[in-house]
């Protein structure tokens, strides 16, 4: 039985440590900070055209970007 242990431990190659892992998806660099200027520039213009069903209209006091959209959809 000790021969089996020695054979598996010494197979002619030294034990190699695991290579460092690539950064996971959670550790990705984030995009630019979502400042008011960034959001105003992002949502200016005509946007893109696509076919959709209108499910409601919600008045918004000011441009708040993604958070505003999420709040409106959750009502």
Brief account:
This is DAB adaptor protein 2. InterPro entries: DAB1/2_SBM, PH-like_dom_sf. With 75 residues, this protein is mainly α.
Describe the structure using short key phrases.
DAB1/2_SBM; mainly alpha; 31% helix; PH-like_dom_sf; DAB adaptor protein 2; 3 helices
Helices, by number, come to: 3
Cα-based radius of gyration, to the nearest Å:
28 Å
The SSE string, one letter per element, is HHH
Biggest β-sheet strands, sense, barrel: none
Question: What is the rounded distance between the termini?
Answer: 68 Å
Explain what this protein looks like in three dimensions.
- It comes from Homo sapiens (Human).
- InterPro entries: DAB1/2_SBM (IPR048559), PH-like_dom_sf (IPR011993).
- This is DAB adaptor protein 2.
- It is extended and about 45 Å long.
- Helix content is 31%, strand content 0%.
- It has 75 residues and is mainly α.
- The termini are far apart.
- 0% of the residues are buried.
